[in-house]
């Protein structure tokens, strides 16, 4: 069956010059196709309308453009992530049953994250025990640092985890943890020990053993709202994306946002290397 051709909403085509059509404005993704015939230009410009949901063979017939040429256009647009993919289809498809997500703990940030999930149509539990209910994902919140054991039970249950660590001037979201496919919290701890021999002593003074984070994981209302929205965006995207960004963390400075991205690898001495992939 011929593939469906459907542009992302952000990839609106515009005529740039004679024989040129531009898609999108972002430097990292926007492209310009040049050397086009008038029929080819019309075909590409039509992707902003109803023709954008057509099969590529139908587009070739409608505009009198050779199928091989249409295939070139489709492959180019797909290579630059300008076409809707399986993850986009999942976002648009009707949800049969909302996912159940766990957000254990307490406090303004934790409660705000729960509410954001509910507003997004998810089911949410505050249980910190993966044995109580089967959840798709857990958000683990802490102030300054998470202990490597914070996700141990969830790791054993094969549950995806999103660590959220709030600091005085920043929040760190991630890395997204998929048991058997990505680094775990213990991997992160071992990497930190490799870089800083004093890390275990520092962690013992920073980490909190209680799940009651009411007085700890807090932030001004505007920051709490921003943090919660970002956490929910990352978590929900990880559930529907065909290639979730596992092993990547985002450090966002507060209140003036500046994002630093970091990729974490599995530690060679972590027991999680022998764990089977659960999902």
Q: Descriptors for this entry?
A:
279 residues; alpha/beta; Rossmann fold; 2 domains; 7-stranded mixed β-sheet; 3-stranded antiparallel β-sheet; 9 helices; Bacteriocin_synth_cyclodeHase; TOMM leader peptide-binding protein
Q: Could you please describe the fold and organization of this structure?
A:
It contains nine helices and ten strands. With 279 residues, it is α/β, with parallel strands linked by helices. It has helices at residues 38-46, 56-63, 67-79, 86-92, 108-119, 152-156, 185-195, 199-206, 221-240; strands at 13-17, 20-23, 31-33, 100-102, 123-125, 137-143, 160-166, 170-173, 248-253, 259-263. The strands form two sheets. Strands 5-4-6-7-8-9-10 form a seven-stranded mixed sheet, with helices on one face. Strands 1-2-3 form a three-stranded antiparallel sheet, with helices on one face. The radius of gyration is 23 Å and the shape is elongated. The longest helix has 20 residues, at 221-240. Strand 6 (137-143), helix 6 (152-156) and strand 7 form a beta-alpha-beta unit. The protein folds into two domains: 13-84, no CATH class; 100-274, Rossmann fold. Helix 2 crosses helix 3 and helix 5 crosses helix 9. InterPro entries: Bacteriocin_synth_cyclodeHase (IPR022291). This is TOMM leader peptide-binding protein.
Q: Quickly give the CATH architecture of the largest domain.
A: 3-Layer(aba) Sandwich
**The CATH homologous superfamily of the largest domain:** NAD(P)-binding Rossmann-like Domain
> At the first level of CATH, what is the class of the largest domain?
Alpha Beta
Q: Which structural class fits the helix and strand makeup?
A: alpha/beta
How much of the sequence lies in strands comes to 15-25%
Radius of gyration: 23 Å
Query: What is the overall silhouette?
Result: elongated
Instruction: Tell how many strands the DSSP assignment holds.
Output: 10
The helical percent reads 25-40%
Low-pLDDT regions: none
Our count of domains comes out at 2
Give the integer mean of the pLDDT values: 84
- Annotation field: number of helices: 9
Largest sheet: 7 strands, mixed
SSE order, one letter for each helix or strand? EEEHHHHEHEEHEEHHHEE
What's the quaternary structure here? single chain
Main sheet: strand order: 5-4-6-7-8-9-10
Question: End-to-end span in angstroms?
Answer: 29 Å
CATH structural fold name of the largest domain: Rossmann fold
